[in-house]
Structures are given as structure tokens and as C-alpha cells.
Amino acid sequence: xxxxxLVALPRNFAIGALATRACAGETAIRHLRDLVELLHGTISxxxxxxxxxxxxxxxxxxxxxxxxxxxxxxxxxxxxVVFPRSARLAHLYGMMLRAEGFFAESYAELVxxxxxxxxxxxxxxxxPARPGASxxxxxxx
Length: 141
What we know:
Helix content: 55-70%
Structural class: mainly alpha
Order of helices and strands: HHHHHHH
Number of strands: 0
Distance between the termini: 54 Å
Shape: flat
Strand content: under 5%
Low-confidence stretches: none
């Protein structure tokens, strides 16, 4: 059923991500690669969080062993380009690169993942606790 859905509704990212979870092995990788390519350059600011969460969630739900080799590495690398603000994806890519022996590239991705996460935590802590409140978390505590 998943193959038929992916062919019938190739531009629906939510259904594509869900259907990909029902695919096995390299078929899932291939469909996710196609979905990532389809989304490249088409995501609006308003859609970014929802699409990133959905697609990155589908990628991260796959067994890590599927990302070994050129095809998996290409998917993760391209996904990092399309979803540059995903710390989860950057971390997964960094860990996969390390497992494959690409130590310098792995280090760069893991540093990038940490920077994204740090930025997100800073923004979260500086945001007002409730609408109308000023400031965020107290400074120095």
C-alpha cells in the first residue's frame, strides 16, 4: 500500500513520510531521498517546523544500519542541506560519518548539531514564560 500511496501522492510530505515508514530497507531510503529532493527550496517559513519535524522524524525512525554506504550517506547529507536547522539530523549524520570512518566530516557535523541545539535552548530560555511577560529565565541562576 505504501508504494501506491507514494506514487499517487508524491507531493504530500506528511503522507510520504508516513508511507515511507511502512517501506522496507532501501525502498524507504529511496523514497525519503525523493521526498527530500522534492521539498528542497520549496519550504516556506510557516511550513518549516512542521515539515522538518515530520520528515526528519521519518528519517530518524529508520534503523541506523540503513544509512551505511554511499546511498544512506547521500540521503543524510542532502537532508542536512534541505533541513539545516535540525540538530537531530545533524547529529545522526555526524554519528553515521564517524561509523564510516569520515572523522573530520563527522566532527564538523557534531559541532554543528551542538551549535543548533545550543541556539534552540538559548532561544527557549530567553522567551517569555507567558504571553505579556518580559524576559525569560533569570540571569545568573
